[in-house]
Amino acid sequence: MTTRTLRCILTGLGNIGRSFLEILPARAAHLRERYRIALQFVAVADSSGCIVRERGLDPAAIVACKRDKRGVIELAGDDIRVVEMMTAVQRLPADALLEATPTDIRSGQPGLDLARAALQRGVHVVMASKGALVVAFDELTRMSDWSGDRQAPRLRFSGAVAGALPSVNIGWRDLAGGEIRSIEAVLNGTTQVMLTLMGEGKEYAAALAEAQRIGIAEPDPTLDVEGWDAANKLLILANAVLRQPTRLSDIAVEGITRVTPDDIQRARRDGGNLILLAKAERGPDGRYALSVGPAAVPAKHPLARLGMQEAGIVYQSDIFGRTAAFSLEDGPIGTAAAMLRDLLSIAPEIAA
Ligand SMILES: NC(=O)c1ccc[n+]([C@@H]2O[C@H](COP(=O)([O-])OP(=O)(O)OC[C@H]3O[C@@H](n4cnc5c(N)ncnc54)[C@H](OP(=O)(O)O)[C@@H]3O)[C@@H](O)[C@H]2O)c1
């Protein structure tokens, strides 16, 4: 059997994009032997610009450049050209776009235009960024195999909803044929860290400062603590898994800003816990009520046992019963790994 080279465009070379390149060398033989594929990067982009080499760029040189905190266009020269990122996505012979630029949930950019352009010309898309999915889920899925058209390019985004946690895949793929009664999930790392620390007696401000110190919270953590990051992820699950067209305004959102250490200690008294719960519950009319907010869960609830840096999801289905998954992620590798699993899941179609 021959090995098929998958030509990839990688946009975004930060924590996730760079980690993606870093995890590949140790897996190259496995990808060749098990999947009969080799990955080639024909273009990569960061905020400095986009570089192109049709015969493939050197991932190690890109990683070294980004570790030195340099712009990737510094690698240009000889047969490496600088082009507009959009031009590369629109024109370069490529099999897949791997999208890991920052998430902007108002405009969805730059990921939205990149994903549109790729899907329009039949290039498969794997997204770690959420913005485009939050803003234009319906449009992007209509352009992809989610529309039901088996010939349409693939769109995968399992890493966009809590990184390594197989939140989307379980609901969409593994519970196929069942009727999902509810989803309960902890999807935001910053608030899980803060609530854990507050349960140990730290005040809100100190817990937030600690989450920032260990690098899990944004310098401006409003999206985390006010519940919007979890709501964005729930929106993607509602659209993708529950197939209920959903906008952010359809979700009742409350953050953890009013939670006190006392609230958490009370919830923990009998072995339970207080979590920022993202929830979808099917009503008698078949529609799901969607919410994000602090919730006390009893000791027997699977999400009560989550550790400080864990995320988790619990599905209830009529025929599959209860299905739960948890992940402990230390850093960005888990999301990079999710991009790899997405790419491998569509590799047979690409190779064909
Ligand atoms: N970090 C996580 O654990 C995690 C988990 C799940 C999903 N995600 C999502 O994955 C995406 C990437 O996250 P990250 O942590 O890797 O972010 P990051 O470290 O900030 O990296 C973002 C990358 O995008 C580049 N970039 C910024 N603006 C750009 C533009 N206009 N055009 C092209 N490139 C641009 C940056 O360039 P420079 O290198 O020049 O700054 C950087 O390489 C985000 O959408 C995030 O929401 C992250």
What does this structure look like?
- This protein is an alpha/beta fold and 352 residues long.
- The chain contains 13 helices and 13 strands.
- The protein has two domains: 4-164 and 333-351, Rossmann fold, CATH 3.40.50; 167-328, 2-Layer Sandwich (Dihydrodipicolinate Reductase, domain 2).
- The strands form two sheets. Strands 4-3-2-1-5-6-7 form a seven-stranded mixed beta sheet, with helices on both faces.
- The longest helix is centred in the C-terminal third of the chain and has 19 residues, at 333-351.
- It is globular and about 65 Å long.
- The model has no long low-confidence stretch (mean pLDDT 95).
Largest sheet: spatial strand order: 4-3-2-1-5-6-7
Q: How would you name the CATH homologous superfamily of the largest domain?
A: NAD(P)-binding Rossmann-like Domain
Instruction: Please state the CA-atom Rg, rounded to the nearest Å.
Output: 21 Å
CATH class of the largest domain: Alpha Beta
CATH architecture classification of the largest domain: 3-Layer(aba) Sandwich
**SSE class:** alpha/beta
Q: What string gives the helices and strands in order? A: EHHEEHEHEHEHEHEHHHHEHEEEEH
Summary tags:
352 residues; alpha/beta; Rossmann fold; Dihydrodipicolinate Reductase, domain 2; 2 domains; 13 helices; 13 strands; 36% helix; 23% strand; binds NADP nicotinamide-adenine-dinucleotide phosphate
